[in-house]
Write a structure and sequence with these properties.
By secondary structure, this protein is mostly helical. The protein has a domain of 208 residues. Helices cover 75% and strands 0% of the residues. The protein is built from 22 helices and no strands. The chain starts with a helix and ends with a helix.
Length: 456
């Protein structure tokens, strides 16, 4: 049925127009998603899956919102809130400043070449992303540790945020949901898929993105400085913070160390011990509180300081987690109207050969990931269809699915509604749209390089 996808495109255009007009993005995405679900119902289209139907269609639309709030708050939303609270607490006790002071001594050699060090954040972060597969979790950890160091070296806040979000662009390895799904579709061992296909491609793409960011961020930062000279604005008065001991510089990095120590790759313990991002952050928080108690000797004040953590969680909930929920409802609306099926149908009927169809599907997943703010949603919709398409077209399934999987996670990095990007931009006090502008050129270039590498 072609009516649904056409209506979906109309809604996409309407949402883009409303966002350009600076309408509230949470409200725009939420209500457009709900309206698309209602339209899908009246068109008789199969709606997105609902876990606990209420028995009445009108109430089911509200149930979508309830389930999205429940699922996201129990998953990525909780991770984002805990990390945000941790970052706020580290900033309050002066641990973030202590980390910067410690790091600046060995890194002072890069003072004249800040963009060299900044660009190297991409491959370093990509390595960490294999062990810490939560995009939002890793990005916010890096916002707590790497971001203040980059800014102190002279890199703009926008450049620092863009580089940190770029570290989550390639979802690879045994812990990646997209990689696991791709290996399952291919009926291939995840380790063989990781080392045999993902690693060689990501080495090329990571090098491409690293070099392009070196030039792109310098160009945009020069423009930013020129605009600030033409239109200077007053900086808010700096908040007075306590001067913490240099030893406190270890505290912001502690969760990262714990995650790496207890990861499957480190394999340091005879009995597997599972430490996720939430556990690592809370251990870091409680360790910081104990350090504060030892330093100040005032238990009442230390317990009172926990309010900083809760406030940090609340602030990120109202600005970021709610946006992720709204984006989830929006993507459900698109799926219910047959947007994904429509894209697939077009790709199958435009008369292209196997490689042509692969190119089109890779680009479509990239665009769908941008629109939905989720690489998983885009890939899970297309990926399982590959074996049925690849065989008749004379293309190897792995040759088709590899760029599709990579395009899904890359598209999320240039989506202004992706949770990871919104969360990092909020902490960095920059606009998500401005971060997308920084990310667009490196990842469009990476997309082209990937397609050439894979198909030529």
């Amino acid at each position: 049925m072609i009516t649904g996808p056409i209506i979906a495109l109309v809604f996409v255009a309407l949402v883009v127009w409303l966002l350009v007009k600076k309408m509230n993005p949470i409200a725009v995405l939420l209500f457009s998603g709900l309206v698309m679900l209602v339209v899908s119902f009246f068109l008789g289209l199969p709606l997105a899956k609902i876990k606990s139907p209420t028995g009445l269609a009108g109430f089911n639309f509200i149930q979508y919102l309830i389930e999205s709030l429940t699922d996201i708050n129990a998953g990525v939303g909780l991770v984002i809130m805990i990390i945000s609270g941790f970052v706020a607490y580290m900033d309050k006790i002066g641990a973030s400043d202590a980390l910067v002071t410690l790091a600046m001594k060995p890194l002072s050699v890069f003072k004249k070449f800040p963009y060299v060090l900044a660009s190297l954040v991409v491959p370093l972060g990509q390595f960490l992303f294999i062990s810490i597969p939560s995009a939002a979790g890793l990005a916010l950890l890096l916002m707590a540790t790497i971001f203040p160091i980059l800014v102190k070296l002279g890199v703009s806040r926008l450049s620092a945020v863009s580089l940190i979000t770029a570290t989550t662009a390639f979802g690879i390895g045994p812990a990646s949901a997209i990689a696991l799904s791709a290996a399952d579709v291919l009926q291939m061992d995840i380790t063989a898929f990781f080392f045999g296909y993902q690693i060689p491609l990501v080495v090329v793409l990571s090098a491409t993105v690293t070099v392009s960011y070196f030039f792109v961020n310098q160009y945009y930062d020069r423009k930013l400085k020129a605009e600030e000279q033409l239109h200077p604005h007053e900086e808010p008065a700096p908040v007075q913070k306590e001067k913490a001991p240099l030893l406190y510089g270890i505290l912001p990095v502690l969760p990262l160390v714990l995650l790496l120590m207890f990861s499957d790759f480190a394999n340091l313990f005879p009995i597997p011990i599972k430490v996720d991002t939430n556990i690592a952050m809370l251990i870091g928080l409680f360790t910081a509180m104990v350090c504060e108690w030892i330093r100040k000797g005032d238990l009442k004040a230390v317990l009172q300081s926990l309010d900083v953590f809760w406030n940090g969680m609340g602030d990120i909930f109202k600005s970021v987690v709610t946006l992720i929920v709204a984006a989830d409802i929006f993507s459900k609306g698109l799926i219910s109207l047959g947007f994904i099926d429509g894209l697939l149908s077009v790709s199958q009927h435009i008369g292209l050969g196997g490689i042509g169809i692969s190119l089109v599907m890779t680009i479509m997943i990239f665009l769908a990931s941008i629109l939905m703010g989720s690489g998983n949603a885009a890939f899970f919709a297309f990926g399982p269809l590959v074996p049925a398409i690849a065989g008749p077209l004379g293309v190897k399934s792995v040759q088709m699915i590899l760029p599709m999987a990579m395009a899904a996670s890359m598209g999320r990095t240039v989506s202004p509604i992706a949770g990871v990007l919104v969360a990092a931009a909020t902490l960095g006090k920059v606009s998500p749209v401005d971060v997308v502008k920084r990310n667009m050129i490196p990842f469009l270039l990476a997309l082209v390089v990937m397609l050439v590498y894979n198909f030529l």
